[in-house]
Amino acid sequence: MDDKLLQKLKDFRAAAARSENEKPYMVNRYLNFLNAEFKKYQARVQGEISSLDIRDSYLFFTLKDKGGGSVLPCFMWKNNYELCGISLEIGIEIIVDGFPEIYAPSGRFNFKVSVVELVGEGTLKKAYDKLKQKLEKEGLFSPQRKRLIPEFPQRIGLITSETGAVIHDFLNNLGKYGFHISFINSRVEGQAAVRGLLSAIESFNNKNIDVLVIIRGGGSLESLQAFNNEVLVRRIVDFKTPVICGIGHDKDMPLASLAADKAVSTPTAVTTILNQSWDKAVNNIAATEKDLVYQYQKALNAAVNRIELFSGDLMRFWSDIFQVFDGLGHAIQNNLAKLIYDLKRARENLSLFSKNFAAYFRKNLEDINKMLDNIKKRLQIFDPARQLKLGYSIVSVSGQVVKTVKQVKLGEEIAIRVSDGNIKSVINDIN
Amino acid sequence: MAKNNLKDSLKKLKDIVDWFEKQEDADVETGLEKVREGAALIKESKKRLRELENEFEKVKTDMKEGNGE
Predict the structure, then answer these.
(1) Does A203 contact B39 at a Cβ distance shorter than 8 Å?
(2) Is A115 domain-assigned?
(3) Which of A38, A212, A360, B31 has the fewest CB atoms inside 10 Å of its own CB, making it the most exposed?
(4) Among candidates B49, B55, B57 on the partner chain, residue whose Cβ is nearest the Cβ of A282
(5) Contacting residues of A for B2, CB less than 8 Å apart
(6) What local confidence, expressed as pLDDT, does residue B67 receive?
(7) Which of A112, A278, A299 sits opposite B20 (nearest CB)?
(8) Is residue A290 part of a domain?
């Protein structure tokens, strides 16, 4: 017996043994088993839409190879479709991400799509421009609605991929200012990243953060598709705190960046924004320190100047007073000198006067003496005694000197004074 | 919180510098008090800045899947 035949025999015996020992699946259970197994076969499949049926809560479409006959029936929930932010049309080429599944009630095989994305830069650019125009009209990119990044942010919500250099660049360049970084890992590549990004944003909505940061490295329009997603853009606009996007890009800025409150293109630039107020504070403290010393020095100098001015005024004031005193002193000195001079002069005059007076007096005295001598001589000449001695006598009657005969009467007693005595006589004749 | 204290300290420091700038004839004694207050604020702020360390926390999320059929 050859080996092949032997193997077949073994397989048959094993199958027979299984069928004897194992319980058969019920249909539903078997389908569940298959569907669980199918989930292992998640894949991205590219094709052209050949049919499209959009219902209220789901949609069916068929993908086929360009120029080939193979078709793949696809099923997608409407909310997932809307999450992708693109419009499907028959004839366009797309890539779907999903896994096979058998719908139990009908036994129909479908490729269950979770993410659909456009193919080709041209198509993507067209979709980008269209959505940009729409959101722009709504004012979602308007500078007026941009919120300021708070001063001294501390609680940072960070969304990015944990693999790659971006997160390391971000953490390495963030200043040591006591930042508390809450990080949520998310895919950032392609359309498939939308769900993770939205989920992360929603998680941060319930967290106490000062600012939300979304970062990723540069890429093509295709790889940045998630950041041009309408739902994501609206979530960024509606987010409770300011959002900073640091997404690298070539020509077209991602719509998420346009909608963010602050947008830069590198993680390092994001850290610059976050560090800014802290860096400024450090510089301000250093500058204030210098300024404070300078200001106090200035105040001290001003006080010293004021004291100097005041003391100058005081000196001038005292000087003025002393000048007045000096003037008075000089005046007193002058007056005193004048007084002394006058007194000296008076004394000299007095001395001269007394000298003159003495001379004058002496001369006068001499004159008086002479005059007295003269008078004496004259008196001596006219002295009655002398006359009496010469023989003259003085006759008096009743005490009256008789100068005329009329004064006397006959028989009257007269007194005759001679030089050496008196004679009494009686008148006996009058001629 | 350090954040508020630092912000408050910076505001107080700015007020002190403004006070000096507004004075034509600064009262030296009040000025000295202000300088002392400013120096204390600067010292405290520098200390706070030196002490600050970053914290990193990875948040786990239960990512919502799409609706099942």
Answers:
(1) no
(2) yes
(3) A360
(4) B49
(5) 178
(6) 38
(7) A299
(8) no
Least confidently predicted of A288-292, A325-329, B3-7, B41-45: B3-7
Instruction: Please indicate if any CB of chain B lies within 8 Å of the CB of A235.
Output: no
- Tally of domains within chain A: 3
Q: Are residues A245 and A269 in the same domain?
A: yes
Q: Choose the final residue of a domain: A238, A258, A278.
A: A278
Q: B68 pLDDT exceeds 60?
A: no
Assess whether A273 and A134 both reside in one domain. yes
- Tens-digit pLDDT profile for residues A132-179: 999 999 999 999 999 999 988 999 999 999 998 899 999 999 998 889
Mark whether A114 and A181 lie in a shared domain: no
Residues near A347 by Cβ (< 8 Å), separated by ≥ 6? none
Q: Which residue has the tokens 């032997």?
A: A6
Residue in chain A nearest B49 by alpha carbon? A177
Q: Is residue A301 part of a domain?
A: no
Q: Which residue of B has its CA nearest to A175?
A: B54
> Are A160 and A269 contained in the same domain?
yes
How many pairs of residues across A and B have Cβ atoms under 8 Å apart? 126
Give the residues across from A157 on adjacent strands: A182, A212
CB distance A50 to A64 below 8 Å: yes
Both A133 and A269 in one domain: the answer is: yes
pTM greater than 0.80 (yes/no): no
Q: Are residues A112 and A191 in the same domain?
A: no
Question: In this model, does residue A325 exceed pLDDT 50?
Answer: yes
Structural domain boundaries, residue A406: 386-426
Same structural domain, A216 and A143? yes
Confirm or reject contact between A180 and chain B (CB < 8 A).
yes
pLDDT at residue B69, rounded to an integer: 34
Q: What is the DSSP string of A70-124?
A: -EEEEEEEHHHHHHHT----TT-EEEEEEEEEEETTTTEEEEEEEEEEE-SHHHH
Asked if A194 and A99 sit in the same domain, the reply is no
Contact A180 B55 (CB under 8 A): yes
| DSSP assigned state of A206 | T
Q: How confident is the model at residue B36 (pLDDT cuts 50, 70, 90)?
A: confident
CA–CA distance, A46 with A64 (Å, rounded to integer): 8
3-state SS, residue A161: coil
The CATH number assigned to the domain holding A62 equals 2.40.50.140
> What is the per-residue pLDDT across A23-36, written as a single tens digit (0 to 9) for each?
888 999 999 999 99
Which of A120, A154, A171 delimits the end of a domain?
A: A120
A319 occurs within a structural domain = no
What is the pLDDT, as a whole number, of residue A378? 78
